[in-house]
Specification:
By secondary structure, the chain is an alpha+beta fold. It is 36% helix and 22% strand. Strands 1-2-3-5-4 form a five-stranded antiparallel sheet. Strand 4 and strand 5 form a beta hairpin. Helix 1 packs antiparallel against helix 2 and helix 2 packs antiparallel against helix 4. It starts with a strand and ends in a 7-residue tail after the last strand.
Length: 151
């Protein structure tokens, strides 16, 4: 299952409509996948974080890919035409900050930590080709279980 949205680098004011478009895609696809409601909520949060980053820091077009095969975790990829694979992978897997150095009022810098936390580290980057244009780009992927793990 692949959903595509075309776009260019966005200003902060243009991000909400792009996120709304991706959110609608996640909800449509989520209705077709056997996902627990909690997993669907986490999927929407993670996609929102990655779409925000893509539209702020990378050139378009952008694509959202949602993939699922029975019995396997749901995989999603947010793809852009940028070249940030190495940097993004480093940011996804960096150690947590020392608590006394965390600035609660800082506006950015938490999105990829949220992605890594909600996916339990099952996330990364890879080079890929955009389906719509054939351009080389960056895919940030993550896996989510189809059922929420309850303690």
């Amino acid at each position: 299952m692949v959903s595509r949205t075309q776009g260019r680098r966005s200003s902060p004011r243009s991000i909400p409509p792009v996120k709304a478009s991706y959110s609608a895609s996640v909800n449509r696809c989520g209705a077709l996948l056997p996902l627990d409601a909690d997993v669907l909520d986490e999927l929407e949060i993670v996609v929102s974080e990655l779409v925000t980053n893509a539209t702020r820091y990378a050139p378009g077009p952008y694509e959202l890919r949602l993939l699922h095969d029975h019995g396997l975790p749901a995989r999603a990829e947010v793809v852009d035409a940028g070249a940030g694979t190495t940097l993004i992978d480093h940011l996804l897997h960096r150690p947590p900050p020392v608590p006394e150095r965390v600035d609660d009022l800082e506006l950015g810098g938490r999105g990829l930590r949220i992605v890594a936390e909600l996916t339990h580290g099952r996330c990364g980057t890879q080079w890929t080709r955009l389906c719509g244009t054939g351009q080389l780009g960056t895919a940030v992927w993550f896996d989510l279980p189809t059922q929420h793990h309850r303690p």
